[in-house]
Amino acid sequence: MSFPRYPAYKDSGVEWLGEVPDHWEAWKLAHAFGSIGSGTTPPSNEEQWYDNVGIPWVTTGELRENIIMETKKSVTNAALDKFSALRVHPAGSLVVAMYGATIGRLGILGIDAVTNQACCVLSTPRHLDIAFTYYWLQGFKQIIIDLFSTGGGQPNINQDVVASLRIPAPGLAEQAAIANFLDHETAKIDALVAEQERLIELLKEKRQAVISHAVTKGLDPSVPMKDSGVEWLGEVPAHWGVTTIKRIVSTPVTDGPHETPVFLDEGIPFVSAEAVSSGRIDFERIRGFISLEDHRRFSQKYIPQRDDIFMIKSGATTGVSAIVETDVEFNIWSPLAVIRCGPDVLPRFALHFIRSRNFLEGVTLGWSFGTQQNIGMGVIENLSIVVPPLATQTEIVELLDKYAAQADELIGEAEKTITILQERRTALISAAVTGQIDVRNLASALPA
User: Fold this and answer.
1) Does domain 25-169 sit in CATH 3.40.50.800?
2) Buried b vs exposed e over 149-187: b needs ≥16 C-beta within 10 Å?
3) What is the pLDDT of residues 321-344, one digit of tens each?
4) What CA–CA distance (Å, rounded) separates 123 from 141?
5) Per the confidence metrics, is the pTM higher than 0.70?
6) Can you tell me the distance from the alpha carbon of 417 to that of 19, in angstroms, rounded to the nearest whole number?
7) Which CATH code fits 219-387?
């Protein structure tokens, strides 16, 4: 769909923004809002500051480009009296995350609330409409982070940076019309994204169901079955063996070093859970590089080789697995367990079995919890695995590799579609809030 442009433009006065319609004015956020504030975090180990019925307390983890109607925690009136930085911000305020992994995330208060210190809150709009400002900050999120954040791996912006941002805009009525147009158009795009996300989930569920059936029931529905003796495994073909991981490996199950190395800008790749979380070893997501000396020292315990299976054994992605498909020299960290198959089990059959619903249920039953879920080496070694004849394993692997490749291709296409839709969404927002397209006539026909 093509959109008209405004009749005339002028320089915005913001170097990286370009031109805007000539009747628009630029406003510093500090002048456009009656209040710009933040909050604080009362000591979490002191119960008198928190309850379930007090003033809602917003953290950056609750900012998801959403309207915030409830929070995980509330603070007491005693906390408001004790901590002067805890200011109650009115419903309708715009909240911006300033720190770390959530930097740039946005939310609009649907309730009166206080926030932690990582939130910047814009209240009492004077010259800029809340919804228009919300879309403007969303459209230029990455540029703002790139230009104004400080810090390395965890970039930060501060309240002064937010307050100093200059936003060109028309009058309030026209701002509201632009925001109303974007509400409707982005909702359409979001619905298309949701369809693709659901498709991806269905493809993944179907893929895992096919894998689970093949590696526990086989490909011949007519073969006699027997009780495996393992609750989460159920019945298996009568001529298959059932044993434990420790009995099918050529070397004991091991893991990476339990120490933090010195990370370098180049050297030997050092792989941890993040690089395996997608189900393959992604060398673009490694922790960093280690020296040849550290690599040689760590290699006294374990040297990666092709067809080794890595399983994440701690954190949110516990149980996710990948297989080594390279001869590149690298090393691994302690969150990864290593399973190296012996002669009775094909590595790719073991990989598919480890990815089955049945095995993952066994992993879940073996979890222990501290600050996060994890599974011990001894538990992994004693988890059950089926051992079909090698010829049967080969048939199953050939079928599942082909099926998984087809499913991955469809998932990849859906993911590309999502990327295109999200790029289109961002481009539409940026064009509308800078006046590169004139949506006034369209917006006036939409319900408020």
Assistant:
1) no
2) beeeeebebebebbbebebbbbeeebbbbbbbbbeebbe
3) 999 999 999 999 999 999 999 999
4) 19
5) yes
6) 31
7) 3.90.220.20
